[in-house]
Amino acid sequence: MTASRSTAPRSAQRRRLLLAGTASLAVPFIATKARAAEVLRVGDMNAIGWKAFLEASGEGKDIPYEIQWSRFPAGQPEHEAFNAGALDVGQTGDTVFLFAYAAGSPARAVSAITFAPRFIELLVQPDSGIRTVADLKGRKLAVNAGGGPQLMAYGLLEQAGLTAKDVQFVFLNPLDAKPAFASRAVDAWLTWAPYSSLAIEQNGARPIADLSQTQALYSGNNFVLVHKDAVQPKQALISDFLARATRAQHWALNNVDAAAAALSRESKLDLKIARSILSDFVPTPVNLTPAVRQSLQASADGFLRYGMIKQPVANLAGAFDTRFPIAG
């Protein structure tokens, strides 16, 4: 019988995390306890909701191994935890994974999560005269530097007959971009959920473009990841966890109200935002189809094309592990 309870990491585990330099990057929480010899270390983020959906759906019951959860604020620190050998399973955005893999990360993608196009949107103020991307000429555009949204911005500008020199890029992380947009220090903001949802809900922001216009360049997918050195010793545990997580995700999409309530409780997200993540953005588990794998290469090629990287990222075949297919 599996019991879930809040625990502090064992002292030895805490020392290992400190030595690995990851203690400041992740917040360890709930351990699902079973035999001490069988432990799966899983990274979660607020908008992903693995833990919340497992518990609410019932898929988290009677797990025959211990899950040590760590919550991360973003994908980059999660990859640092992978690098330190502190995680077995996790999930991050595609471009975060792309750069981490190119830099030698031990993480490998085993499946993907697709989103509805509204997951990433280009926002303007409700009373703004900006109606199309072409209207951004000479305006200030806030975007997170160096990742998929910046690549998406370049693609949108090119489609509108503009270049990066035609707008004033203001590179801000979402937490800094939010007040800059609200105070009208910038004219537009390209960002992802839940930040886009919050801006629409709280500031009346108006979307003028989304992922549907740049799918060939940037997919906006997430990738489910495993540590390559954990696959052999923990293959059965990983397979079981991923199967449970997939069933829990499908349950969440079919039971939005209950799932949103669980996600809101676990992540402290506003209930409306939690519901929007499920009902509007439809995070859906998918296998590593050729199209999904090619989407990562397309992003790598786009980064090179727009000068965001200096060297090509080729031969991405090694970034994927197909031993954990999604059933059904």
TrEMBL record:
Residues 39-255 form the Solute-binding protein family 3/N-terminal domain. The keyword Cell membrane does not apply. Keywords: Signal, Transport. It comes from Bordetella genomosp. 12. Residues 1-36 form the signal peptide. Part of a binding-protein-dependent transport system for aliphatic sulfonates. Putative binding protein. It is found in: Periplasm. The keyword Transport applies. It comes from the Bacteria. One of its GO terms (cellular component) is periplasmic space. GO terms for molecular function: ATPase-coupled transmembrane transporter activity. Belongs to the bacterial solute-binding protein SsuA/TauA family. Pfam families: NMT1. This is Putative aliphatic sulfonates-binding protein. SUPFAM superfamilies: Periplasmic binding protein-like II (SSF53850).
